[in-house]
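queue> holo job accepted (NDP)
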Amino acid sequence: MMVDKYAVIGNPIAHSKSPLIHADFAQQTAQAMTYEAILAPVDSFDATVKELMASDYKGLNVTVPFKFEAYKICDSLSVRAQSSGAGAVNTLINSHGKIHGDNTDGAGLRRDIELNLGFAIEGKEVLILGAGGAAHGVLNSLAGAKQITVANRNLDKALQLAASITNGSACAFDALDKPYDLIINATSAGLTDSMLPISDAIFSKNTLAYDMMYGRETPFMAQARRNGAQVADGLGMLVEQAAEAFYLWRGVRPNTKPVMDKIRALAT
Ligand code: NDP
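queue> job finished
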């Protein structure tokens, strides 16, 4: 039996949950495939990918810090990877030796918010905190929102990001003073347990406060909870973006709930 090879590439990579997630998807859907984590030296991502593609790897996931470099080495790009303006991809497909790139982060976020959390984005007031790679990558997936406000520590970056959509506006954190329906924390402030300088007034009991970080309660999540908002972390997005990549590679959509439950159980 032919067994197809896949991998995730990053640096560092030991912490990655992707091998566990894809092993679960492969088992559920009876796919003959392997999926491993590969550490690429920071200065030879390009060579590592080309070597893997030449060794007949069928597809790769790309994580920090290589998503931007991955975009540049693609021979072709999906429409959503081109139109996101992120200049970054997280999924590579070996298409007869040519590299096709896609970005499944936005689709993963939207599926988690709408399907898993049951929150409809259409017509809602949305606030994105942060204007880095993750914010760029998911902005297009919020189509249908009434208004999207981008707030960032570096205001110029927020202005630039908001200008890429017709219903966008930008401001500094301390100018935020009214409640939003959906607040997405796309900053990496949670990594260092840093409080964002945001007012309690942006949360209400009707707010969904979504932190793209996962694995721990961030100060953002704690503040949202104190103010009565519904709170979610980014584990669902992680698993959904993986499922979207799996679907691109294998043409079959895995069930995401069992693997989310498994990872949550491992964390407790
Ligand atoms: P980047 O480094 O590209 O951007 C970081 C952003 O966070 C910038 O907007 C930066 O502001 C802001 N920031 C960092 N520290 C602080 C702070 N102390 N106070 C205020 N703002 C701060 O990172 P990414 O966009 O790639 O990643 C952001 C987060 O999203 C990470 O936590 C990452 O783990 C998560 N993520 C989760 C995914 C998932 O599947 N769940 C997928 C992708 C990302 P400034 O511009 O002013 O420097």
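queue> The chain is about 35% helix and 20% strand.
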